[in-house]
Amino acid sequence: MCFHILSVFAMPLLGCLIISLLFICIFLLKSCLFHTQAIIKPQYVDHIPRAVQGNVGQVLDQKDERDKKAELCRDLELNQVIDRNVGDLSGGELQRFAIAVVAIQNAEIYMFDEPSSYLDVKQRLKAAQVIRSLLRPNRFDLLFSFLC
Questions:
Q1: Bridge-partner residues for 143, per DSSP?
Q2: Roughly how many angstroms between the first and final C-alpha of the chain, as a whole number?
Q3: Is the pTM of this model over 0.85?
Q4: How far, CA to CA in Å, does 62 sit from each of 53, 74, 100, 111?
Q5: 35 CB contacts (<8 Å, ≥6 apart)?
Q6: Is CB count within 10 Å lower at the N or C end of the chain?
Q7: Angle at CA 49, nearest 5°, toward 71 and 57?
Q8: Who's near 8: CB < 8 A, 6+ residues apart?
């Protein structure tokens, strides 16, 4: 069984708040009932350099639990910045890096808050494909993407 919620588009603020609260309730319920691993990609990627030190390749190597570094770097076009310091990345590069850091780890719950900001159309489509690839057949996975 696979449960996934990939997006919430163009809803009024109240509707967006209600759906966000529903996601949080589901997350808390699942976390309380089962020992679960949850990973969240933050909304404000420009704050990442304050919390993460080192270069892109080193950070991805440290987080690579799924052995997907090469694939994600290719898909998210991170090979060009693999040797750069995280603090030197642009907004779009930080967004793709943050998506890769989340997608490279093992979890039952993946949450992506505004995964398309700073990305052009082609990069948004690729990011969506990476996020969808996290769903696994015959598993109860939760995959949230907040686009309000």
A1: 110
A2: 27
A3: no
A4: 12, 18, 12, 20
A5: none
A6: N
A7: 30
A8: 16, 19, 145, 146, 147, 148
| Beta strands per DSSP E along the chain | 38-41, 109-113, 142-146
Interior CA angle at 14 toward 123 and 109, to 5°? 50
Neighbours of 74 (CB within 10 A): 11
At 7-58, the pLDDT tens digits run 444 444 445 555 556 666 666 666 565 666 778 888 899 999 999 999 999 9
How far is the C-alpha of 28 from the C-alpha of 19, rounded, in Å? 14
Residue 50 parent element (H or E)? helix 48-51
pLDDT tens across 66-86, in order?
A: 999 999 999 999 999 999 999
SS3 state of residue 98: helix
pLDDT tier at 147, thresholds 50, 70, 90: low
